[in-house]
Design goal:
Distance between the termini: 17 Å
CATH superfamily: Glycosyl transferase family 29
Structural class: alpha/beta
Number of strands: 6
Helix content: 25-40%
Number of domains: 1
CATH architecture: Alpha-Beta Complex
Low-confidence stretches: 76-82
Strand order of the largest sheet: 4-3-2-1-5-6
Strand content: 5-15%
Shape: globular
Mean pLDDT: 78
Largest sheet: 6 strands, parallel
CATH class: Alpha Beta
Length: 175
């Protein structure tokens, strides 16, 4: 199955990837990704929505009708064991495997991987993955659909390095 993971980086505004993205068998989006009004840039199809644990409490605001959710929980967040267990006990939604979270980012500076990085690591275990809209928190706003500022809890340089390594290994490519 061909898979594309669509990040929320502002570089998507400058590209018309919509038709290409929609041509994949599985289109994965991240967190509060907006599609309406951006179809030429990001496509209109969503097969899986990967959310971080904060979005579990947003309820129907984040859910897309008939689209399965996959939850990304960072294993080393404060009280990670308690949080992971609490989420596992309170939701019937699938969680990204804890080992994937550990493997996706060898951080040692108090940062943790973005939901997008966890999604990439998860789906790479299932085959080659294409990505678009992963800007690694460089320059300008955080998302293509609003002016939010990048989160300081992620390390864009480390994530860019890891993505480059995965590309060199052949399991990942950029659109």
């Amino acid at each position: 199955m061909t898979t594309v993971i669509v990040g929320n980086g502002p570089s998507l505004k400058d590209r018309e990837l919509g038709k290409k993205i929609d041509s994949f068998e599985r289109v994965v989006r991240i967190n509060a990704a907006e599609v309406k009004g951006y179809e030429h840039q990001v496509g209109s199809k969503t097969d899986v929505l990967v959310i971080n644990e904060r979005f579990l409490w947003y309820g129907d605001e984040i859910r897309i009708k008939n689209v399965p959710l996959l939850v990304a929980v960072c294993w080393w967040q404060p009280l990670h064991g308690c949080l992971w267990q609490r989420i596992a006990e309170t939701t019937d939604l699938p969680l990204i495997d804890e080992d994937v979270a550990r493997e996706s980012s060898p951080y040692d500076r108090g940062k943790w991987p973005s939901t997008g990085m966890l999604a990439i690591a998860h789906f790479m275990r299932r085959g080659t993955v294409a990505i678009a809209g992963f800007d690694h928190f460089k320059g300008g706003p955080h998302h293509y659909f609003n002016d939010s500022v990048p989160a300081s809890c992620h390390d864009g340089e480390d994530e860019a390095f890891i993505v480059q390594a995965w590309q060199a290994e052949g399991g990942l490519y950029r659109l």
